[in-house]
Amino acid sequence: MNDVAAPAPRALYEKAETLQEIQTNLGDIQARIQAACTRVGRNQSEVRLLPVSKTVDEARIRMAYQAGCRLLGENKVQEAYGKWETLSDLGDLQWAIIGHLQTNKAKFVARFAHEFQALDNLRVAEALDRHLQAEGRSLDVFVQVNTSHEDSKFGLQPADVLAFAKALPGYGALRVRGLMTLALFATDQAQVRPCFVRLRELRDMLRQDAPQGAAFAELSMGMSGDFEWAIEEGATTVRVGQAIFGSRKLPDSYYWPEGHKA
Asked: What digits encode the pLDDT tens for the residues 124-183?
């Protein structure tokens, strides 16, 4: 699929402050998803848009809800948990945690999250499973893979994913849905696309060799600057924040939990 040309990433986005602006941006993203699918012969229904609302205030989240958003992604557990409590009147609004999780915060994720997209160690798997069992809940999870091989990023190395996958059936409250990655932060598709290709190829291998291989159906990859390339390489979920809500004042690395990694 690498011979398909896609638009270059967009670096700056105006802050969306009204319902109409958010609706316009969502419509633009959906149109770009459709165009990317068309370029590679995919159906748009195969790709889920996950709006990312980190740092977005309550008023604008309510606008996003009015615009039709029912699942929002958040990086930091405490921020997400506070929003879940504050917006509890929006009964069908669900939350996906897409950032690194420490075991001491697993109890909060187990209490409210609809899915967790950054599972990369068995200590967190055990903690989530234990707290989910206590809550009488289950949780959709994606295994995070460091396809860019950057020390600054969380995620398993590709060579370690199969062994990790073989251990997951022991955690009954975790419903494996697929893999997640963060590509290189670059504007050159020759650098970015290989990260997406690696994740797709890894997913295909797991579906052959992992004990619950059929569960590894989803690929969560692609953000505001590169989601079209991710779709062309097989993404089933794209995580888009700034292109919907506007550029953030600080670099992405600032918003990742504990300040450890991007």
From this structure: 999 999 999 999 999 999 999 999 998 889 999 999 999 999 999 999 999 999 999 999
| Secondary structure letter of residue 58 according to DSSP | H
- Other beta carbons within 10 angstroms of residue 208's beta carbon come to 8
Say how many residues make up the chain.
262
In the three-class reduction of DSSP (H, G, I as helix; E, B as strand; rest coil), residue 179 is classed as: strand
Give the residues across from 74 on adjacent strands.
Answer: 97
Tokens of 146: 């460091």
Residue/partner pairs of 22-27 with CB below 8 Å, 24 or more apart: 22/60, 22/63, 22/64, 22/67, 22/244, 22/245, 23/67, 25/243, 25/244, 25/245, 26/51, 26/64, 26/67, 26/68, 26/69, 26/244
CATH number of 19-246: 3.20.20.10
Q: Which residues of 10-35 are buried (b: 16+ CB within 10 A; e: fewer)?
A: eeebeebeeeebbbebbeebeebbee
Rounded to whole angstroms, the Cα distance separating 256 from 253 reads: 6
Number of other residues whose CB lies within 10 A of the CB of residue 159: 8
Give the Å distances, CA to CA, from 162 to 30, 57, 119, 135: 34, 39, 14, 29
pLDDT digits (tens, 9 = 90+) for 19-48: 999 999 999 999 999 999 999 999 999 999
